[in-house]
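Retro notes
What went well: the complex prediction finally ran end to end.
Inputs used:
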Amino acid sequence: MNKNDELYCEHYQRAAELIGGRWTATIIRVLLGGVHHFNAIRSEIPGLSDRMLSERLRELDHEGVVSRVVFPEMPVRVEYHLTDKGRALAPVMDALIAWIGEWAAPDPAPLARKE
Amino acid sequence: MNKNDELYCEHYQRAAELIGGRWTATIIRVLLGGVHHFNAIRSEIPGLSDRMLSERLRELDHEGVVSRVVFPEMPVRVEYHLTDKGRALAPVMDALIAWIGEWAAPDPAPLARKE
């Protein structure tokens, strides 16, 4: 083990916690899937409240992952879009989907579990 | 937008929350890096307490990601190793590292932030 390997990285841990927040990964996936209106996003995710969705979108906006886009129409239209930084998370989400495809199948994977 | 697309997946959300738990992504990275003893894992991660590391390893064991290996020596030696399911998370972690390499650089990325 080379002690010069940087196994701890604050950015890495923080990014994992951002993505791993309650509902966050699913909200990013819904946005990647082309759903952009608040009510439409919420209706894609069973159990997600208005309050929680607002909070998560605000957090993702603050992190530069999501942008709140206001269309100056009457009535005003608001959409939520991933920024370039947000769209760059797609490979992370794809890798996670591949992992659950292999390991979280309805039939238990052939793994000796200790419970 | 095809309404048959399954944008919500419980397994996916749960996997993201598992990986995004406090310290979890870093613990997995340390294990991938070849560190297997409890004290050695803890000493790689500034601010991680014994209690929190125990709790996280127990959770990862329960999820089939980490295996607690006991070597019947005197004194008994205990190591923590990723299972096949745990090692299969490496591409997720690699994708996350690539993302922070691009977007979480010390110099702010050229992104219009709204704060």
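What we learned: Residues 39 and 50 of chain A are 8 Å apart (CA to CA).
What to try next: split runs per interface for comparison.
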